[in-house]
Amino acid sequence: MTLSDALTALADPVRRTIVKELAGGPDWTRACGTFDLPVTKATRSHHFAVLRQAGVIEQRDMGSRRLNRLRRSEFDAAFPGLLDLVLDERRASPGES
Length: 97
What we know:
Blueprint (H helix, E strand, L loop, with lengths): L2 H9 L1 H11 L6 E2 L9 H13 L3 E6 L2 E6 L1 H7 L3 H6 L10
Antiparallel strand pairs: 1-3, 2-3
Helix pairs in contact: 1-3
């Protein structure tokens, strides 16, 4: 897990949505197909692969489903505070108050 890979993975808004949704629930309860994402199935697979390869998520196959968990403790140990910033992303856009 490198900082560069982590930042690249978290730079995309679709991937941040996945991370935020995983953070809001128990481990191993969300299959890839249960996320309401504005992308095709192939693009969805790509986003999950980027997150997995960067070490942000872990995946487990259960029958025909691929379940996910956020690697919160491992990620926090490697990059303290970074995931908190992503999960608390509520900053106003430039020019907004």
